[in-house]
Structures
1.
Amino acid sequence: MPPARSGRRGTQDAEGTQMIAQARITSDTTATVHLAEETVEVSGADLPEIRDRVKQAFIAAAKAADQDLDVVIVEPDVRHHLRVEPSGRIAGREADQRPVHGPQIDDPLIAPPTDDTADLSGIDRTSLRPRTGEHAAITSGEHVAIGSPATGEHPVIGSPATGQLPTVRPHGGRRRRAAAMPPSTGPASAESPAGSLSSTPSTHSAQSAQSAASAHSAQSAASAASAGSPAIASSAPSAPSASPAPFAPVAPAAPAEQPATSKRPLPARTAPETDSSRPTLKDLQSSTAKPARVKATRGVPGFITRLTRGAISPRPTRRERNETERLERIRRPLDGPRNIAVVNLKGGAHKTTASLMIAATLGVTRGGNVLAWDNNETRGTLGWRGIPTDHPRTAVDLLHDIDRLRSPEASNADLDPYVRPQGGMRFDILASDEDPGSAASIDAAAFGELNDALSRFYRIKVIDTGNNVRASNWLAAVKSADQLIIVSTVREDTFNAAAWMIDELRATGLAEQVDHAVTILSHSSKGKLDSTLRDRLRAHFGAHTRAVTEVPYEHQFVDGSHLEWERVSQKTKEAWLDATALIIDGL
């Protein structure tokens, strides 16, 4: 029977206070994980991959100890206080004043060295000259080790011919660099690969052998000195050594545990000095570049351009210029993955329709990398409204296989068994489970796991939500949203539900999300909208949200069948282009 888990893993400081593990994300490609027994350097291709590997390091440490692990992740602008369970579950916790392993939380974030080579460029070479009583001979082509009476270590003097210093390998205690693969999720063992959280015995043995050989060299040199050898200094390098490197530093016979290798800040980038009296490449390009002339492509001006094959090219009309500017707004680059959450607490408020049209508009105009995600806490209909696929898998199935997406080797192809491609509209759908009991298993923590994994593969996620403001996954989707979309039909029950939801969000501390939101009023009938009601709705929601826009009635949406982009009217597409441009403005 396995031992029961108790308490949280950690060590105690001198006063008996429980210490917690710490990860310091020092750049978009590097991080340092400080655990009770060791310090791990983590590297990756980008920030999402770094965050994932940090989490894997903590999960592996919790598994090795078979108990919960309280951690803090420090980034330049935010700190995450988390509790990591051996099962892999990660949940938030309240911040406290317990000490942490490694540097203080408020210490500056400094990236680790880019390799294992110590930087000796700042050493004053004159300080390495032998002092009275020390034996050294500097001859052409030879390197001589001079002992330090304070530390017992022997720095190496470079060749007088080149003036260069050889590299020295640091030997920080218990510090190691993570391999490209994330830590193994299996039990830790002494034979774990370099990417696991256990130390490698072969590395330790090699260091022990090198230390023993270095100690033997030091003892041989001391024996020669006591015997009065005429070539004391020159004989030291020729002493027996197990290391093939002739200029390796000599360590004491029984070195004490050394602290972790000190870090150095990354060098600041400085612009090269330029002579202001001389023109630069940029000046040349500016003087020779021809101004781009925008040619009309639509209407009568566009017809003239095509008829004359560009010989006569009138300026585009104001309408065409506005459409071009709108497309440029939608296609503008984003500096990271973004979430768009579509909300209203009333069923039939056109949330699913809005999610599909936003995702389709983004997919068609931006060229893909868009996901429409049904995060309904009960049975959602987003999967039904999309183009059918061969598989019935949903977000619950993806959650069960989430470790596959966390692997550094994971690609978009690994998502094919779970998402539903939408053809020429260039977006995918992740459906909710048709069993309400299964869908309820996606709580706030599960939403966070899915969101982190999916952010590696999709630039924009459009999240369709349910109707329960108290559901943890609903609240998690709203909190994660970079842009909140409040959608409502022009009916009393749905716009009253939207207004109540706004009041509820403000009361629960999410006023900033509401202030930044976009309201979309969807016409639910062909009839002409009452102008007084329209003015009142635009005034109310305009006082709460960043922008208010309207989309017309679309007959295709009435029957609830799957979306066919070709059947959507041009008027409806234009309205959703306007709405999508407003959304991207907020990202």
2.
Amino acid sequence: MVPNVLSHPLFRAVIVGLLYYSGAWIGVHQTITPEGIAILWPPNAVLLTAFLTSPRKQWPLYALAALTAECLADIPAFPLWAALSFGTVNILETLISTMLIQRFTGNHFHFDSLKSALVFFISAPAIASAIAAILGATVYVLLGRSDSSFLAMWRLWWFGDALGLMILTPLLVTFCHAIKYRLMSVKASKLAELALLWTGMILTGSNALIDSNINELHFHLTPMLLLPFVVWAATRFSTAIAASTTAIIAWMATGYLVNGIHPYATTLPQFAVWQTQEYLAVVSVISIGLSALMHELRDQRHRLESATVALRHQNEQLEEKVRERTQSLERANAELTSLNSQLKELATTDYLTGIANRRQFHEAGERELHRLKHGEGKAVLIAMDLDYFKTINDQYGHEAGDSVLRQTLPPVKNNIRPADLFGRIGGEEFLILLTDVEEATAVRIAERIREQIAATDMEVPSGTIRVTASLGVANWDRICDLKTLINRADIALYKAKHGGRNCTRTYVTETEDGNQAAPRPV
């Protein structure tokens, strides 16, 4: 029950709203210098994390929660229209960031490669924050509360938003993934190392981030003493720990700067803020970029180890196959026999329709008539030809013609037995040899085939068409060979063609006076 509540979109939207409000409160009360200069803006990282780790259908809920939290945080100091404008700008910034990130990394974003980290830094802090800063600075100008130039306000907004995204988004995204995939466990030896890392970093930072006595330098390098700790965290721990390390440094630097303490020789608060922002941006890029690179290298090493294990397993399987060479040869012989059967089938099967080809039909038909001669068996041959087939090829193309030939098969197969011989002897010409049936029965079968073909909608690339067929029926007299029987069926088919098509005609043997009777209409 509890997990269902925690995963419900409304509950998560409330959490996003509360975290966004908390971030806005921290941004207003904990990251503003005495001169009123904002160092970083945290809440946008909350909304960006929600977008990156949730389905798109839940984004409107999170955006509404963020807009509500923005208004609650801003209304004491700004009119409602300004609060709504600030919230809208922040939502737009996170949307642009998310769309750009997912465009180049997919819908499931992780800080697991150098590419993903690079896409994040370019998309969110560099592009989206710069665009949002234009709109945010415009709102400040409309409020009439800005004593600085529009360019200065734009830079102030850009740096604050960008820094908040750079420092907090990696931390929040990796934290969400750690919870989702239960990756929170850390070995005891790693915990001791992490405690040593953070303790040394805090002690070093308490000296590296305070006022300097070397007033002649414009930028003091003492904050760089913290970079080894950043590299340590990025190379030895996960991205979550590296992001946490960066957040601790940002917390320390911001805390000192809010109280007017910094290691820079400049006396202008605005330049001190900009230098601190630039320093924290460099730290964030190094931390997250190096951590993502190490994650990628570890994954590559893991894949290489897996490939090595797989290769070793393959070698073992190969040795086993060598030991079983006799069985392998037997299997090869069986496969060769099967292949020969397939080749034989290919040689006797029409490539287009899958039924017997001309050669197979003649060989099998001769064998069948020879068998019937030694008994009392009967046979009837049906010759079938599709009407105006050349017109179909000319009008719709040969691909359509091939499709029509294949679609002609079901009406035939539905009316003959599996033992009956059915073959395509060329073009649109088909032969059907029926055994142990009377001529009248064969005529009825031919008629059913003709009617079903005429009633079938044939699918072609441009739609559906109807085709018809002409059929000729010749009864076997138990004397003639297959070639003669085919000629007789062709004579009947010829009469069906010249008798108006879409009809069936039967072959009539010579009359007593020696004249050949005309094929009978059906």
